[in-house]
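Q: Got a minute? One more chain.
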Amino acid sequence: MSGTSLDGIDAAMLLSDGHTITEFGPTAFRPYSAAEQSTLRAALGQWSDGPDVAAASEVVETAHAALLARFKDAQLIGFHGQTLAHDPYGLQGAPRTHQAGDGALMAELLQTPVVWDFRSADIEMGGQGAPLAPFFHFACAKYIQATAPVAFLNMGGVGNLTYVDPAKPTPETGGALLAFDTGPANAPVNDLMMKRRNLPFDENGACAAQGKVDMELVQKFLTDPYFHKMPPKSLDRDSFAQLPDLIQDLSDEDAAATLTACAAAAVARGLEHVPTTPKTLYVTGGGRKNATLMAALQDGTSAQVIDIDETGLDGDMLEAQAFAFLAIRVARGLPTSAPATTGVAASVGGGRLSRPSA
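A: Always. Here it is, folded:
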């Protein structure tokens, strides 16, 4: 998995039948070089015919092949590629999504079956193509033996939440899942730190901890129509492009504190949409390492907020593990999304399976 942060590629093995997680295996990370990041950033927002897409695809394919070659025992590979553009609402024409990287080429390079293009089928059936991790979250809830409803909150560039009722038999069963993007999470703070201090992020929320939250700006942020939409719903990394303008007159510390408070407030508002208040909120992604954000989440919700690492799961590798799990489901003809996770018309198995020709 290579996400919107463009920092590099996560890879992870697991053993599963597509229903139950039997065992988690080794993991690895390959960072993108500065030159590779520059090539990828140049192609952001472009579709398959974009002028910078071929170069970006070559970076994605070369880097993934180098990392995945370490996993000699893999029987199947889930290759997500790098999202360059995502327009599930059809704001630029027909609804579509674009991930750079050719899975058929990867199958040839690695001489292993590859499942890829996970999102297109969902969008073609009226879904938003995201989020796709919820079916894996359902399996994780079973794996950690949760009995009451819980929620998985991924605080990456964008926040997304999965409500899970582990009492249901399958993830596609009505009421088993509800998933949606909560709002901006780390991306606005990361952008702020890069612009003002030439730092990639606010480590441990230290800058935000020294600032004062401008509650008037937080309340203005919460008036955005997105928060009144019923889930499932999804966002792009730049959906809240007005945020930098809101905090431009604040000090570094106050701006970081306010943006962090906005991320937590968006989650609290999102929890108003779930069927019942979850007992526990398991936080994944880089945001779980931000003490200021975690404290704000705890203050804003009645659930117990826990770093998912405390369950024995790996919060850094959950997305990569999710696409390994989804690859198995695609290969076995099982659905990977449902109306309550992406808004798709009916449960659908996304993804294409490519086998090596030799």
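A: The radius of gyration is 19 Å.
Q: Perfect, thanks.
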